[in-house]
Amino acid sequence: MGELLYCGELEKWSNTARGKTWRKFFIRLTNREIRWHLPSESDQNVFLGEIEVSRIVNAKLDKTSPLNEPDHSMFIVQDPQITHEFRTPSLEDSELWVQHIKNATLPKTRRKKLPDSTARDRINSNTS
Questions:
Q1: Residue 96 and residue 117 in contact, taking contact as beta carbons nearer than 8 Å
Q2: pTM to 2 decimal places
């Protein structure tokens, strides 16, 4: 499965029986892939989709998409065949996901040590 680099719950623009909509997933970023499964799924080996890290050509914030809503921040991950849209409740969360994804595409010797969300949450709660 690969070395876990980052994980968390966020929303992905997805096909459903009623058309495309935002769906909440648990996302796992490893040095090999980004995988997503339903938050209620306890078996993390059962996943609904994946993007191979080696195929990622771009990851960036998307502030101009018509899918954007005022209470969310969107980012995209592109491979040569498809653009995957994700969103989080805050700009900071989306920026952190983009940093982690870009970092995962680098050779291991060039990867940076990035904060995880729990460390950031602890820092924020200590300063308030």
A1: yes
A2: 0.81
